[in-house]
Write a structure and sequence with these properties.
globular, GIY-YIG endonuclease, about 40% helix, 3-stranded antiparallel beta sheet, about 90 residues, alpha+beta
């Protein structure tokens, strides 16, 4: 089983939201359908970052670190080597 952290960005105001999941594409759909109260007012969302982690524990630790980040940090991540978004979408 694979574990992922992800960053989505609001098309309304550019806000970033960070989370973790086993299925990033399904999770994005949930956000865009309004199933998450903290993101439903800023829909629609774009998936801008996916990072794969080997264990659930590492995923949760990485998510906590992401939640402490700022906009500059997220922009650097989005352009960085750990972002597997392109590869992930091509294989799905």
């Amino acid at each position: 089983m694979s574990y992922y952290v992800y960053i989505i960005q609001s098309q309304i105001d550019g806000t970033f939201y960070k989370g973790s999941t086993e299925n990033p594409l399904n999770r994005l759909e949930q956000h865009n359908l309004g199933h998450t109260s903290s993101t439903k007012l800023k829909r629609p969302w774009n998936l801008v970052y996916i990072e794969q982690l080997p264990t659930k524990t590492e995923m949760l630790i990485r998510e906590k670190k992401l939640k402490r980040g700022n906009k500059d940090y997220f922009l650097k991540l989005i352009k960085g080597d750990k972002n597997i978004l392109g590869d992930f979408i091509e294989t799905k």
